[in-house]
Amino acid sequence: MLLQQIVNGITIGSLYSLVALGLTMVYGIMRVLDIANAGAYTLGAYLGVWAYTRTHSIIIALLAGVGGAAITGYLFQRAVYTPIKKVADPIVPLVASIGLFIVMEDLFRLIAGPYTITFPVHLPLNRLTLGSVIITGTQAVILLVSAFLFLLLWILLNKTKIGLAWQATAQDVETAMAMGINTRSVVAFAFILGYAFAALAGILVAIHYNAVFPTMGDIPSYKMLAIVVLGGLGNPLGAVVASMVVGLAEALVAGYIGSFLPTDAIAFLALIILLLVRPQGLFASGGDAR
Amino acid sequence: MNYWAVLATTVGIWVLLALSLNIITGEAGQPNIGHAAFFGIGAYTSAILNTKYGVDFWGALIVAIAVSALVGAVLGLISMRLRNDFLAITTIGLNFVTVAVFQTVHYFGGAMGIGGIQPPRIGGLAFGTLEIAGLIWVVVALVVILNRHLQKAWFGYALRAIRDDEAAAAAMGIDVRRYKVLAFVIGTGLAGLAGSIYAHFMTFISAGDFGFNISVTILAMVVLGGRGSIPGVMLGGIVLGMAPEVFRFISDYRLLVFGSILVLVMRFFPSGLLGQGSRLQELLTGFIRREGAGARVR
Amino acid sequence: MKTLKFGLLMISLLVIALLASACGNGAGNTQSGAAKTIKIGFFAPETGPEAADGTSAYNSAKLAVEQINAGGGINGAKLELVNYDDQLDTKQAVSIAQKLTTRDGVAAVVSGSYSGPTRAAAPIFQQAKIPMISAYAVHPAIPRTGNYIFQQSFSGVVEGAAAAEVAKNELHAKNVAILAIDNDFGHTLVQGFKQRAAQTGLKVQEPNWFHFGDTEFTPVLTKIKDNGADVLFMPAYAAEGSQIIRRIHDMGLKIQPLGTEGLDSTTQFLEVAGKNANGLVIVTNLNRDSKEQVVKDFIKAYKEKYGHEPDMVGASTYDAFYVLAEAMRKSGVTPDKIRDGIANTKNFQAVTGKIEGYDKIGQVIKPVQVQQVKDGAFRYFGEITDPAIITPPVN
Fold first, then answer.
1. Domains in chain C with CATH codes
2. DSSP C122
3. Between C98, C123, C184, which is nearest B203 by CB?
4. Which other chains touch chain C, taking contact as 3+ CB pairs less than 8 Å apart?
5. Whole-structure pTM value
6. PANTHER family, from UniProt (chain B) (predicted)?
């Protein structure tokens, strides 16, 4: 059973990491705890299912969801976050992002209705049995797609000019500017990529659960904060590792101890304990303390 | 009449919560997005003392304040070790863990909540809705007086110095640790007080009453009204506290309006409606000065 | 500085006054009305986290009132629905209850909300002596508030006991695992299930609990699989229940799932679970294959008006209005008479089964329906009428 639970945990962790990556990309640059990123996750799912029911093409569904969310990210950044960011207190953009998230969720309900919409994509893989371990079709798809997306992000951040600029800016904004990096376009890049990633995660999760509903972003909206902090705010690799840790913890607790606490509380409990021992997080942040 | 008394009580509890968070977040500059945890700790302490051990409201109230303040002190000590954003997320975590404990531990009523909490009484008189409304607003008035007193005292200056620049404050010889913890103790103790009154007003509580969304609403009241400004925070508490009832006529769009208000105020009045340096506040100040001058001439 | 602070305080007071007057105007709309109308109060979580159930309840309330009025109303008088959205917030429910009792002048109230808001509002109606029917909230404390409060849905204990009976007699269970939601609904159902199972000698494992909003059930199902049960009793709601069913299928688990009324929704459950739901048995109050005209009419009218299948929440809310209408016709239209009328309900054919009546606490007595999913639809599987099971506990 242990091996099986490890597989289960890594699958859950993969899903978490896809959502967490978007958030940590934005944080790395802007130092904004962007709750509204979870709105992009839901937006991606809605746009995806809307496009899919009309075209029956998963590619178009992905493009619609990712494109719509990327545009939203860019608009939010230009209209809200960058102007607010001039105010020093980080609580201001946080409250604004909570407001944006509430507006988005209510718009989903008003436009698409309160009921769950299905996302009936048939996944091509069958159940795999390796000894005593079962890997279900959806698990296999999640693991493969996540691996592919991690690779994609790694290439983007390490092999492209804008990605390297993101890294440099996340490390130290002033030096990056002094080096001639156009921080404005890097900020826009972070939001576009961060929201696009959230949308991808939203679509994948919606297919996995065959469900799209207005409040599907509620739990990710705060749980991802815990994961992103665990991994060191603004550190993509850390976010992935932290997602896996939380996913494994949840699987093992559910499998061996039973549900002594709601699963969300487990992530936060882990976080609080960790921060007491290591106030800087599991890994150092992508950037400077302030 | 009863309807107004109930509304006044609800709004009063919100205002009290907003004032209490203001001491931590507005005056000492420490982010706290889990304030509902202390509201809940106060409510549960009071409810358990009342229903399980027969302690009356007044006794339970004192213990509720003490227990909340104690947990607040621990959080205050933790806040020393954490930088801003980490502290913000730790407080969210504290909120979730607290709610989870209320929800799962049988002693705290578990999933069924706690019912049958007695309303406050003095001698033979059991408090009705009107008396509870009176009680809460008397408490609010006392807290405002205390808070204004603190603001003017050394305590207030020390907190503002810490908020504006912690290192400089320490260099000036301010005992940062002591004042931060004190701000947490007072703020969370007052939240516990609000929780105790809430429990005895509702007579039935469950974990969901103290969730993360409540913390967000309290924070929104403080930030919207103006961090650090007592009239501002009260205004925030009154406006957002009444919003669910006032905006009933737009029924289906209430949440949309609430969210939009948050975004717009943060975008155009980032220090809150009546906060330091807000445009509205400058406008009002100018207006009042002119009015005041006119009055003196006459 | 003093004048500034004072001025600001005055302005805040002005704002309060303005808001208060706006508030007064909003409520004014509901105060007048035609001479011959009877006002029925209603509240449900129409926006916020449970907007889907709130919308179902509100839709059904509108439908019921419309139909009752179209059929001539109550001896010529029309019903008027006074609707409020509580956003699943107990504080709002208390304000709403005060408003309904002191300002709107309603004759009776239907709660289309969950246990929290319903329980918070109930004492206010009891004190004002205005009857309230809780359409689908299951908390046992609700009807125990007093003699003006009635519960239209089964006591959770009854539903749990009925499930245990189905597990033992229909599904021939030897060893039952439980996967239940950790709230009032889950706990009362598990309590009823375990009590009945103990009486009939059915082996039940320690319950596994999950929480509202959980999505990933593979880990706990892995554990259940290793403990070798043949029936899985799952008091869950549609969102979590559909995922449990999907994972059971994904993992190739050989276990017979046994659900409850929480899964009784076509849009929220059956469509999400898809073909994985086939074979699932649930205990509920809605028999979709019923030959009764009221059931057929309700399902048809709801589908025509709203474009999707009705669910258990909707059917229960709809019934609450018809129970009220019946009570008003037989007994009178003042709050006291309506209360007596509800208390004296006898063998009333409603959508959610034949209501035998309400016990002295105000809990409904009616048979439990057993349904099975076949080809993506709920179909008749059985009915439990044994008084030993369907009589709700009194203490």
1. 37-154+291-362 (3.40.50.2300), 156-284+370-390 (3.40.50.2300)
2. H
3. C123
4. A, B
5. 0.88
6. HIGH-AFFINITY BRANCHED-CHAIN AMINO ACID TRANSPORT PROTEIN BRAE (PTHR30482:SF10), HIGH-AFFINITY BRANCHED-CHAIN AMINO ACID TRANSPORT SYSTEM PERMEASE (PTHR30482)
